[in-house]
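Design a sequence for this backbone.
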């Protein structure tokens, strides 16, 4: 199996050399990962956007980004396919590729009738049972479904392994499942992902969420990170491979820093603190809030996070400097956005004390 390696990512870091500050890379699972990663959520499902992503990925690799993040449902599988085309001939061991499964992805465009599509694609072939779908038939995380989706992702990406595989927004199933049934589904999903690690098709796994780690413990879609780690331990023992979470962390969505919604013994702490204590890496999604943080930032933010930077660069400097964040992910479908955003790699991440001072001065 070909995947990112310690030797390959260290080679990439050395080759980038003076283009990046020493703090630009951080360790994850024995690998060296860039502080800014390229996300592939944005854009229309068309050839022009595909070409833009291919160019953006080539530019990102040249400027110090070795983290590429996708999901099978992004742009109806076209984002994964664009990543795969962009990586053809690239040194695979230098590049960290993550993707996600859970949402029904469709293929190129939405089907005319969802129920007929589910029946034809998943239910009649025995990939998943009708009762295993949630959210109106749009989400499934049964082991056999995830196995099918991972295989499809690998075909799309033209890879035989991904370095990190997330269950995508599992908290959405809590809208219709009691907590014990949800936990049983998560445990079963983790069990399959442990098998995938053993088979070499993924390097590690985690959960990518939107609401789950940011909401109150009383919310229906709340996720407790210690509980998820306990489920992973049940599935894979003390050496389980649940290693990362992904959630929004940006200038507008600061719950990961502010909300003490995770319980550690008798005390409550933030999800960032809980992740640190549990040995779980944090990947920040939506660092630019889908371009809404690329313009019009308040003067206090401009002073605090770089008076000589653009608003997009300030937003990235914030996200990549959050204590405990390994990589800040930003959607970049055009090469010119990559050039602007990767300029922050030349600057140090703010040390924790400076970050807290800048945060207070926003």
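Sequence:
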């Amino acid at each position: 199996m070909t995947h990112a390696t310690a030797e390959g990512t260290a080679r990439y870091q050395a080759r980038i050399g003076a283009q990046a500050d020493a703090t630009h890379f951080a360790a994850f699972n024995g690998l060296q990962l860039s502080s800014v990663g390229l996300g592939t959520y944005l854009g229309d499902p068309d050839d022009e956007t595909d070409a833009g992503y291919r160019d953006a990925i080539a530019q990102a690799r040249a400027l110090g980004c070795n983290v590429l993040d996708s999901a099978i449902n992004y742009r109806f599988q076209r984002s994964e396919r664009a990543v795969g085309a962009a990586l053809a001939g690239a040194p695979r061991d230098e590049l960290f590729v993550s993707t996600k499964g859970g949402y029904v992805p469709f293929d190129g465009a939405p089907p005319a009738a969802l129920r007929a599509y589910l029946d034809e694609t998943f239910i009649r072939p025995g990939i998943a049972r009708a009762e295993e779908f949630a959210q109106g038939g749009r989400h499934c995380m049964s082991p056999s479904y995830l196995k099918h989706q991972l295989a499809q992702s690998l075909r799309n990406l033209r890879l035989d392994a991904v370095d990190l595989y997330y269950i995508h927004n599992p908290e959405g199933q809590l809208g219709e499942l009691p907590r014990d049934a949800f936990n049983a589904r998560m445990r079963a999903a983790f069990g399959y992902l442990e098998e995938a690690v053993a088979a070499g098709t993924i390097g590690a796994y985690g959960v990518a969420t939107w609401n789950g780690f940011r909401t109150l413990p009383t919310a229906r879609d709340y996720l407790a990170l210690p509980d998820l780690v306990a489920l992973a331990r049940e599935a894979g023992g003390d050496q389980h491979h649940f290693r990362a979470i992904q959630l929004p962390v940006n200038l507008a969505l600061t719950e990961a820093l502010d909300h003490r919604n995770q319980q550690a013994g008798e005390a409550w702490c933030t999800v960032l603190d809980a992740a640190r204590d549990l040995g779980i890496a944090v990947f920040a999604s939506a660092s630019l809030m889908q371009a809404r943080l690329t313009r019009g930032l308040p003067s206090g933010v401009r002073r605090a996070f770089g008076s000589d930077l653009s608003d997009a660069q300030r937003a990235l400097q914030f996200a990549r400097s959050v204590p405990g964040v390994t990589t800040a992910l930003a959607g970049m479908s055009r090469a010119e956005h990559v050039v602007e955003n990767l300029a922050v790699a030349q600057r140090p991440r703010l040390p924790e004390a400076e970050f807290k001072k800048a945060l207070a001065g926003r």
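The chain has a mean pLDDT of 96.
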